[in-house]
Write a structure and sequence with these properties.
This protein is α/β, with parallel strands linked by helices.
Length: about 700
């Protein structure tokens, strides 16, 4: 037998090559998940080819590390063939295992079989490239062991490539550790296979062997190819990462500018929105307090606007709102600020004015709206109800002025609409009604009047239910079912939101338990956390306790936070949300785009879902700016490996457009309104009956009657 020794430097270099090749393959897999089709194809091919070249280079560097008392030569054709085997096997396996959203056991086994077969064939074909007089004797036990190591190494490597393909927090460190593991596994297979070979000693060295490629030539060739390929791939990868970072930063900055504009102005009318008018009011109040000059606040609401929407549709209603805004604006001077609060509600700030001037202005406003509108070929007749409060006569704070202007407007509504009025003390009857309302609300939880209703969320592609959002309802003994718009602000202002919020958490987990017992273990449920609730020191323990109490896996629960809540105390938010993520709870950023959105900051939050606010969706078909903003939000969210949910879907056009933009999940009245839990089986029956037209009409009618 020939005496064989090993060059430790070359052994170390062979492992280094295996490590670099593994790291480049893992990095390429990550870029596949975050790239478009053409770029993903490049990274699939480049990543697989790099892994194959790296394994092949490691093999031949390892062979060069084997020192025998003779000059070795290698058959060029066989050597090149072994390289092609490694490249093809690695490329195929990477494409099979990484280019999917879910890696099944069957797919993993197939990819593992291809890669391990390629590695084994490459290794032993490479050994056959040795030009020797005598054949190599093999220790078949070690050969079998090398094959087993190849299979295990291939399986582990492909699983790591799939698992680490997402750019989550700490991804770089994880990939480096994984590359070390893969490098060790590849090296173990190679040197086990080398140990299985036994070379004969016939008393003379084969230094006279001619032909093929010499050890020196092979070493130069392998080193040049390896360094060139791996170097080029690393450079391309770094350049690509830098370009992605720059592009992402530019997109984020552009989106932030768009969202800041969106946050200050109403998307439909172009008027100031609630946030902007509040800033103007604060400034005007401070100025008036210093100069002792009065100003007026006018609350305005269109009469019978709901009839227009019901009769002619929201599209006509939106056009009417724009026309109303234009008519009101035509009556104003530049120093005044008109804002749309939402729906058909407007607020007007009139600085440095007198009661007489405001009376004249209010009269002109009411008269201008009383004239008919011509929209979409229809003659529309609406009127205006306005309530006025004056500083300092009717209040010295913005809260007082707003409340009293709203009270005056409500009084006009009660008297028959189509007019205006200044606030006066006799209108306080509404305040008394508010106190009675507060008393009822305070006792609602104790009297078990709160309920959770559930609105389904759908996969955009398959239109199948994957979960629900829990929505709070108040079953008032005399007023019937009340929506959160009526009572949620009062819950938050009085602190009642804390006990009610804890009740919601417990009921949501209990409902998940019921669904699991009914066979719906795959359904998720979203609950909304208010700012006050999220700031409670025991919120994490409360949610974990409810999940444990009802034996619900954390992965089935989604916590929705508004972006303003999540960003209020960023350091604490990151800590708590990381705790939720660690146990498997999904964190979702709700109503995105309605505040001072900053995705540069938002990307630091460990959120896995982003909900696009319905205000973007409502007129997305007719508003090109909203389309661009939504498309940018979806692209950036996907680059951060976040799922995107669009809420407020009411039309087929909205559904098709958002699906085409890449939004994966949809929610809205087009699919279903919120339902009590007991009516969900009927909703499922309706979905099932869609496959059976004979019963579809009857079931649909039942559901619609229930939802009405």
């Amino acid at each position: 037998m020939l005496y064989v020794s090993w060059d430790p430097v070359l052994v170390g270099i062979s492992f280094l090559v295996a490590f670099i090749a593994s790291f480049v393959a893992l990095d390429s897999a990550a870029k596949i998940a975050a790239s478009n089709k053409s770029a993903a194809l490049f990274w699939r091919i480049a990543g697989g080819a790099t892994l194959g070249i790296g394994i092949w280079s490691m093999h031949f560097i390892g062979m060069l590390a084997m020192k025998m008392p003779m000059m070795m030569h290698y058959d060029l054709a066989i050597t090149v063939f072994s390289l092609l085997v490694a490249i093809v096997a690695a490329t195929l396996s990477i494409n099979i295992a990484v280019n999917v959203s879910v890696l099944s056991v069957k797919r993993l086994c197939l990819a593992t079989g291809i890669l391990s077969s390629g590695v084994v064939v490459m290794h032993y074909v490479g050994m056959a490239a040795l030009m020797m007089d005598d054949a190599i004797d093999w220790n078949y036990g070690l050969v079998a062991l090398s094959v087993i190591i190849a299979i295990v190494a291939s399986g582990v490597g492909l699983w790591l490539a799939f698992s680490l393909r997402l750019n989550s927090k700490g991804a770089l460190i994880n990939r480096m550790v994984a590359a070390v593991v893969m490098g060790i596994a590849i090296a173990a297979m190679h040197y086990t296979g080398m140990s299985a070979a036994e070379f004969h000693d016939h008393g003379q060295y084969m230094s006279d062997m001619s032909g093929g490629v010499s050890e020196l030539g092979l070493s130069i060739w392998v080193s040049a190819v390896t360094l060139a390929i791996l170097g080029i791939m690393l450079i391309i990868s770094m350049i690509d990462s830098q370009l992605r970072t720059n592009r992402l930063t530019e997109n984020l900055q552009q989106l932030n500018q768009q969202l800041e504009q969106q946050a200050r102005f109403d998307g439909l009318t172009g008027l100031a929105n609630r946030s902007q008018i509040d800033l103007r009011l604060e400034s005007c109040l401070q100025q008036s307090q210093l100069t002792r000059t009065p100003f007026a606040l006018i609350f305005m609401d269109l009469d019978r606007f709901k009839l227009v929407n019901d009769a002619w549709g929201h599209h006509v209603g939106d056009h009417l709102l724009v026309s109303v805004a234009n008519r009101i604006s035509a009556c104003l001077s530049p120093k005044m600020t008109l804002a749309r609060l939402g729906g058909d509600e407007f607020i007007l700030l009139v600085p440095e004015t007198t009661q007489g001037d405001v009376e004249d202005l209010a009269t002109r406003l009411v008269e201008s709206i009383r004239r008919p509108f011509y929209e979409a070929g229809q003659i529309l007749q609406v009127s205006l109800s306005a309530g006025i409060s004056l500083f300092p006569d009717h209040g010295k704070t913005l809260q007082e002025l707003k409340l009293r202007a709203d009270t005056a407007m409500y009084n006009i509504k009660q008297q028959g609409r189509n007019g205006w009025a200044f606030y006066h003390a006799d209108m306080m009857q509404k305040t008394w009604e508010g106190a009675e309302f507060l008393q009822d609300l305070t006792q609602a939880l104790e009297r078990e009047q709160f309920e959770l209703w559930y609105q389904p969320k759908y996969h955009a592609s398959s239109k199948t239910i994957y979960g629900f959002e829990a929505l709070l309802r108040w079953r008032h003994p005399s007023k019937g079912i009340l929506l959160p718009d009526v009572f949620l602000a009062t819950l938050e202002n009085t602190g009642l939101i804390i006990p009610v919020g804890y009740w919601v958490i417990d009921q949501a987990c209990l409902q998940l338990r019921h669904w699991a017992d009914q066979g719906h273990q795959d359904w998720s449920l979203s609950i909304n956390l208010s700012a006050a609730q999220f700031e409670q020191f025991d919120i994490y323990d409360t949610i974990c306790g409810a999940l444990s109490r009802h034996a619900v896996p954390p992965s089935r629960l989604t916590i929705e936070l508004t972006e303003s809540t999540a960003l209020r105390n960023l350091e604490r938010s990151i800590e708590i949300l990381n705790d939720f993520n660690r146990i498997g709870i999904t964190v979702s950023i709700d109503d995105f785009g309605t505040g001072y959105s900053n995705m540069l900051t938002l990307k630091n939050l460990p959120a896995r879902e982003l909900k696009i606010d319905k205000s973007f969706v409502k007129d997305i078909r007719d508003n090109s700016k909203n389309v661009k903003i939504v498309a940018t939000i979806i692209d950036i969210a996907h680059s951060m490996n976040m799922n995107v949910v669009a809420e407020g879907i009411e039309t087929q056009d909205q559904q098709q457009l958002l699906t085409s933009l890449g939004c994966g999940y949809l929610q809205g009245f087009l699919f279903a309104k919120a339902l009590p839990a007991k009516e969900i089986p009927q909703l499922l029956a309706q979905l099932e009956s869609n496959k059976n037209p004979a019963v579809s009409t009857r079931t649909s009618a039942v559901i619609q009657k229930k939802q009405a």
